[in-house]
Amino acid sequence: MSEVVKAGTTVPATAAETSPDNPWPLQVLSQKLKMHIDRAPSAWVEGQVIELNRRGSNAYLTLRDIDAEISLPASVWTNVLDRQETQLERGSRVVALLKAEFWLKTGRLSMSVKDIRPVGLGDLLARIERLRQALAAEGLFSDARKKRLPLLPHRIGLITGRDSDAKKDVLRNAALRWPAVEFEIREVAVQGNTAVAQLLAALRELDARPEVDVIVIARGGGALEDLLPFSNEELIRAVAAAATPVVSAIGHEADRPILDDVADLRASTPTDAAKRIVPDVVEELARVQQARDQLRRGVVRLVEQETDRLASLRSRPVLSSPDVMISTRLDDVERLKGRSHAAINTAVVRAADQLVHLKAQVRALSPQKTLDRGYAVVQLADGQEVPGTPREVVRHPSQAPAGTELTVRVAGGRFTAQSTGGQEASDD
């Protein structure tokens, strides 16, 4: 940078200050690029060796991304390669320590490999296991989030290899079990660096279709490296986020990619997947027939029970001779009527006797009876001031002084008399 400043004080300090009238010299741009690239740190990257050429003490190789169509050329000293226990070959999976280098005179950018290490089977297994544990800790494998498969899917989405045996196994066995089943098939790469992208695209497309009831991801067996796309973290998270139930049918029983853990159902093989996503029409027809037989037996048993109950009811005396109930009640009514008449007659007789007794009492206490015994009622003859009112009864001698006209009533009638005076009764 100091050399650039010495070259001329009018050189712009930054690229933003350059203009057609005041440009940078080419060497300034080259020096600034080199300074920037030299400050960039080295980075460990993973890839697959697709080209490897040795030229004396130098070797040139091309690395390709594991899951995408991206490649990068690099150079390496042969002594770095010779330090490896196993010789690198095309197709090897490696991790390399890359450092970007910029050649000032030629303006060429190159990648230099400072160290390189092959990725062995044990490393891949350890990496997959670490990812499996991390995803399990997030709850992606929990049974609570797994969706139930429909009893009879109308349309099945199938993601599989192009013209693969797995595709044929699923289609054949599903058709044998349920001939009316329909499939929405997406043929994709199931291994290699394009497999993950194609699997993701097919999964998202089928998941967006409302007519697809379940999605099956199927592939035959293979080496661990061939099954790596089905342990890819992006694919695993896409399956977990899918709204449609997903069935994993990868490889054989011993194969266990992470997709098996996150899928809503894990089938040991593609054939097993076909057996588990659709019912067997023969078995279902047998179950229908069995259900019809059970229903028929139930109805027959119910009719027989009700028939026996009706026969039992008809055999009861109240139904065999219904007039018995009426005649019995008639006898009860006649008996009650007789008791009612007797009770009424007794009450009438008693009341009549009581009436005669009361009449005798009334007669015994009547004024006529008193008169019949010789008593008389003395009344003032002129005491009837109002016609129709009784005359005043004489109760004391002072009421009838001498010469008073009196009317005397006796048992046989009445007559008049005149008072000659009287005296009061003594206590004797």
Give a short synopsis of this structure.
The chain starts with a helix and ends in a 10-residue tail after the last strand. It has helices at residues 2-7, 26-39, 78-82, 121-137, 165-177, 195-207, 233-241, 259-262, 270-277, 281-315, 317-320, 322-365, 367-372, and strands at residues 43-55, 58-64, 71-77, 93-103, 108-118, 155-160, 182-187, 214-219, 246-250, 265-266, 377-380, 405-410, 413-418.
Describe it for me?
The protein has 428 residues and is α/β, with parallel strands linked by helices. The protein has three domains: 2-119, Nucleic acid-binding proteins (OB fold (Dihydrolipoamide Acetyltransferase, E2P)), CATH 2.40.50; 124-279, Rossmann fold (3-Layer(aba) Sandwich); 371-418, no CATH class. It is 42% helix and 21% strand. It contains 13 helices and 13 strands. It has helices spanning 2-7, 26-39, 78-82, 121-137, 165-177, 195-207, 233-241, 259-262, 270-277, 281-315, 317-320, 322-365, 367-372; strands at 43-55, 58-64, 71-77, 93-103, 108-118, 155-160, 182-187, 214-219, 246-250, 265-266, 377-380, 405-410, 413-418. Strands 1-2-3-5-4 form a five-stranded mixed β-barrel. A five-stranded parallel β-sheet has the order 7-6-8-9-10, sandwiched between helices. Strand 1 (43-55) and strand 2 form a beta hairpin. Helix 5 (165-177) packs parallel to helix 9 (270-277) and helix 6 (195-207) runs parallel beside helix 7. It is elongated, with a radius of gyration of 64 Å. The N and C termini lie far apart (174 Å).
